[in-house]
Design a protein that fits this description.
By secondary structure, the chain is an alpha/beta fold. It contains eleven helices and 13 strands. It has two domains: 170 residues, Thiolase/Chalcone synthase (Peroxisomal Thiolase, Chain A, domain 1, 3-Layer(aba) Sandwich); 150 residues, Thiolase/Chalcone synthase (Peroxisomal Thiolase, Chain A, domain 1, 3-Layer(aba) Sandwich), CATH 3.40.47.10. It is 32% helix and 24% strand. The strands form four sheets. It has a five-stranded mixed β-sheet, sandwiched between helices. Strand 4, helix 4 and strand 5 form a beta-alpha-beta unit. Helix 3 packs across helix 4 and helix 8 runs parallel beside helix 9. The chain binds oxa(dethia)-CoA. Oxa(dethia)-CoA binds next to helix 2, helix 6, helix 8 and strand 12.
């Protein structure tokens, strides 16, 4: 990130939008397909239900989230400079989902790309978009977090199928000359040592699709839940605390923690480390489960639209995911 004294503009979120599919799978449904129960799922994860996209792909959900955003701003799709889509469930390996979204929403003057950082995807994309705005070269960047996790979920594996859902959410970044608002700092990391703890093994160049890869169910999410839990709980708590310290923020100066929604126990541990009470933590994991890149912007959109986030609020966004990837980002909310 640019050093503070050189910065002449911040990137601010100036509009938000979201899309969740209509179809709901509640915990009871999973009792009918795998050996599990509502009590286990609720107490171990905090999830009660999740949404599933029956017809359509990640680009369709992304486009719907962007259309929802455009209803709330005077900015027109043709004014968009860049579209960044954070996803691990692109419509296909190529072209980029960003191209498909660009066509669907009519952003005819935009360029763009997909960003793969799993559950940290939105944070990485937000920082990337912010840097492009801060450079002075671009004025309107759409950052989308979108995942159709049902497309890569094995509904016979109780370890993973209860966790994930489908959703998309988008934010618009624009320059802010007032440095009191917008994205102020971020701490982002990757560590490939975690590559085998959470991944989809086949379908890429290492192990292209074949009859064997399909028979061996290698096109689904694999997760060593216990291993990921251990590093996620420490990783998310530490990084969230670190960004507060780095920016001299006391817990009472943080209006909200906006955590990736993978597990309520990880979220609680992060809030505890930061000294933040429950009512200042954005949570919707109970209704949507883990929607990977969509969780954080979905929280932002819902809390903003219900009047819970106000201009001037200090937010700490934080995430941990496959890779490993993790990070935290500090911003001051700029929308009235
Ligand atoms: O979003 C990206 C990053 N991902 C994460 O942050 C996820 C991190 N991991 C987790 O959230 C948790 O590890 C899980 C929610 C995935 C699992 O919770 P856990 O408390 O770590 O459970 P566990 O994996 O240690 O399993 C405990 C027991 C096992 O039985 P045994 O071996 O002790 O007999 C599992 O087989 O629970 C069993 N189990 C289930 N039981 C009922 C696993 N899944 C289920 C299930 N229903 N759905």
């Amino acid at each position: 990130m640019q050093s503070k004294n050189k910065k002449i503009r911040n990137a601010s979120i100036t509009a938000v939008g979201m899309y969740v599919p209509e179809k709901i799978l509640d915990n009871k449904y999973f009792e009918s397909i795998v050996e599990t129960n509502d009590e286990w799922i609720t107490s171990r994860t905090g999830i009660r239900e999740r949404r599933i996209m029956e017809n359509g792909a990640t680009s369709d959900m992304s486009a719907k989230a962007c259309e929802d955003l455009f209803k709330t701003t005077n900015v027109k799709p043709e004014e968009i400079d860049i579209i960044i889509v954070a996803t691990v469930t692109p419509d296909m390996l190529f072209p980029a989902t960003a191209c498909l979204v660009q066509e669907k929403i009519g952003a005819k003057n935009a360029w763009g790309f997909d960003l793969s950082a799993a559950c940290s995807g939105f944070l990485f994309a937000l920082q990337t978009g912010a840097s492009l705005i801060e450079s002075g070269s671009y004025k309107k960047v759409l950052v989308v977090g979108s995942d159709k996790m049902s497309a890569i979920t094995d509904y016979t594996d109780r370890n993973t199928c209860i966790l994930f859902g489908d959703a998309a959410s988008a934010v618009l970044l624009e320059p802010s000359e007032d440095l009191n608002f917008g994205i102020k700092d971020s701490l982002l990391h990757i560590d490939g040592a975690g590559k085998n703890a959470l991944y989809m093994r086949a379908g890429g160049s290492a192990l292209p699709a074949s009859h064997e890869t399909v028979d061996q169910k290698l096109h689904y999410i694999y997760q060593d839940g216990k291993a990921v839990f251990k590093v996620a709980v420490k990783g998310m708590a530490d990084i969230s605390f670190e960004i507060m310290q780095k920016n001299g923020l006391k817990s009472e100066e943080v209006s909200y923690l906006v955590p990736h929604q993978a597990n309520l126990r990880i979220i609680d541990a992060t809030a505890q480390r930061m000294g933040i009470p429950k009512e200042k933590v954005m949570i919707n994991i109970d209704r949507y489960g883990n929607t990977t890149a969509a969780t954080i912007p979905l929280c932002l959109t819902e809390y903003y639209r219900t009047g819970k986030v106000k201009k001037g609020d200090n937010l700490i966004l934080s995430a941990f995911g496959a890779g490993y990837t993790w990070g935290a980002l500090y911003l001051t909310w700029a929308i009235d």
